[in-house]
């Protein structure tokens, strides 16, 4: 019966997955890709395929791809996707091959998410059995978080418009998910490769170094170690000779052994892949300023926020209004704001490294210089990996309606401001502020729900111990 149900669930998953792929192929067959590539919510100065095509054209004309301040992405991405942007069908430029690359990237990302979810689901069930919760509540159903996360990624409207709108976000998301997959499955070179490529493409995924180190050092997400120690102390209560010996044993095992050798191996591979990527970039830009030009035009462009064209973030409006005298001060404040949150969250959530990675990505999506809906698609899919722990999350319906409303209002406000002229910049900026607020509430409620879940486990474990005694 269980096998039959599992096969039915698997066939249902593949039907939905293949339907999402077919839906993408139908959308990319429309002429002009539904004009999504020009939407500020989808394409940013870092992810626009039009800017990439311009950079490739400049390089083919023996000029620097960064000339004219159009392209600000990776030279390696330019070498891979650039040739696909010059393909023509019936004499007209066609980005069909680029669209197919992005569809493949989405498929790979979904499959990797599914594999990560299956690992987390197994760990969740194992921890529940070790704590004795599955024995006391046999009717408890463990949701297939891998299948849910993969389908959330494939059917998320943000993911679909990023793919159809020819944004390079699907490739960046694939690199991030690849890094997490490598860490979850303990494939150290793969985790290092994904992290290096993701950081090279977007800079902000560098924050994932901390969760990946925790994953490799401590292992997968689990309840706090004290719960396991309390359970073990109850089971071995009769064999303990005195309270002093019990306390001594508890003190000796309050810390998990950290696998420093694996982490050192990971850092070595990060260094190796970084050198390899830098060498390739140097060879690619040998005639156009080398690595110095690349750092200035990519990472320097991200940190200095030179392009103030509208997007779904809040920086463009703020730096358009602020006096130049205060510009550098506020640049430091906004960028350091991300760094200030890393250490407290790492201390509090070190026993849940995958969830910590999700929180870091969500915070980066809120505070990054040039955000797009592709960033939200990534962290929303990672959130689905924790459906078993976050079932009691508050304001879920409110947040769903908020994301939906902002998604519908954003193009309307942009049209009123830019095309009809009946509005002003405050229309679109107000929408961006609302979007940021909903994301902040989403992050806060997710962290609160996870901490409440850990507290509920602690209370259940205490009750279980009292019943046993």
UniProtKB/TrEMBL annotation:
InterPro entries: PIG-U (IPR009600)
Tagged with keyword Transmembrane helix: yes
GO cellular component: GPI-anchor transamidase complex
Listed pathway(s): Glycolipid biosynthesis; glycosylphosphatidylinositol-anchor biosynthesis
Superkingdom of the source species: Eukaryota
Entry keywords, A to Z: Endoplasmic reticulum, GPI-anchor biosynthesis, Membrane, Transmembrane, Transmembrane helix
Positions of transmembrane segments: 12-30, 66-84, 96-116, 158-181, 193-220, 266-286, 298-319, 325-347, 354-370, 398-420, 432-451
Subcellular location(s) per record: Endoplasmic reticulum membrane
Transmembrane listed as a keyword: yes
Signal peptide: none
Coiled-coil region list: none
Any one of the GO BP annotations: GPI anchor biosynthetic process
Membrane disposition: Multi-pass membrane protein
Family indicated by similarity: Belongs to the PIGU family.
The name this protein goes by in its record: GPI transamidase subunit PIG-U
């Amino acid at each position: 019966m269980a096998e039959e149900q599992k096969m039915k669930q698997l066939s249902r998953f593949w039907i939905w997955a293949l339907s999402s792929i077919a839906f993408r192929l139908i959308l990319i067959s429309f002429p002009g890709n539904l004009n999504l590539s020009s939407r500020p919510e989808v394409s940013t100065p870092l992810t626009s395929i039009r800017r990439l095509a311009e950079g490739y054209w400049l390089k083919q004309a023996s000029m620097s791809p960064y000339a004219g301040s159009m392209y600000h992405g990776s030279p390696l991405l330019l070498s891979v996707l650039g040739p696909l942007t010059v393909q023509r069908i019936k004499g007209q430029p066609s980005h069909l091959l680029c669209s197919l690359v992005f569809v493949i990237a989405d498929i790979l990302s979904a499959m990797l998410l599914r594999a990560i979810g299956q690992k987390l689901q197994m760990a969740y069930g194992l921890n529940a059995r070790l704590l004795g919760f599955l024995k006391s509540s046999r009717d408890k159903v463990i949701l297939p978080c891998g299948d849910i996360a993969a389908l959330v990624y494939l059917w998320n409207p943000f993911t679909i418009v990023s793919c159809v709108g020819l944004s390079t976000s699907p490739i960046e998301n694939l690199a991030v998910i690849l890094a997490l997959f490598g860490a979850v499955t303990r494939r150290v070179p793969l985790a290092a490769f994904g992290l290096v490529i993701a950081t090279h493409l977007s800079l902000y995924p560098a924050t994932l170094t901390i969760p990946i180190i925790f994953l490799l050092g401590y292992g997968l997400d689990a309840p706090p170690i004290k719960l396991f120690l309390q359970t073990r102390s109850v089971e071995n209560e009769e064999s303990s000779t005195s309270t002093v010996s019990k306390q001594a044993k508890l003190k000796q095992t309050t810390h998990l052994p950290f696998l420093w050798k694996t982490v050192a191996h990971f850092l070595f591979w990060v260094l190796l892949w970084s050198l390899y990527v830098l060498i390739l970039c140097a060879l690619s830009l040998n005639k156009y300023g080398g690595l110095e030009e690349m750092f200035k035009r990519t990472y320097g462009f991200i940190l200095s926020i030179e392009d103030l064209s509208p997007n779904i973030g809040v920086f463009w409006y703020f730096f358009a209004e602020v006096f130049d005298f205060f510009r550098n001060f506020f640049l430091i404040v906004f960028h350091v704001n991300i760094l200030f949150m890393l250490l407290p969250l790492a201390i509090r959530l070190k026993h849940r490294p995958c969830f910590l990675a999700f929180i870091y990505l969500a915070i980066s999506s809120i505070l990054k210089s040039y955000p797009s809906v592709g960033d939200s698609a990534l962290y929303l899919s990672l959130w689905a990996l924790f459906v078993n722990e976050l079932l009691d999350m508050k304001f879920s319906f409110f947040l769903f309606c908020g994301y939906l409303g902002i998604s519908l209002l954003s193009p309307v406000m942009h049209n009123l401001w830019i095309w009809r002229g009946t509005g002003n910049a405050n229309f679109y900026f107000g929408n961006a502020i609302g979007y940021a607020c909903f994301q902040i509430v989403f992050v806060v409620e997710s962290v609160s729900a996870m901490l409440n879940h850990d507290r509920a486990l602690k209370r259940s474990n205490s009750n279980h111990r009292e019943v046993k005694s």
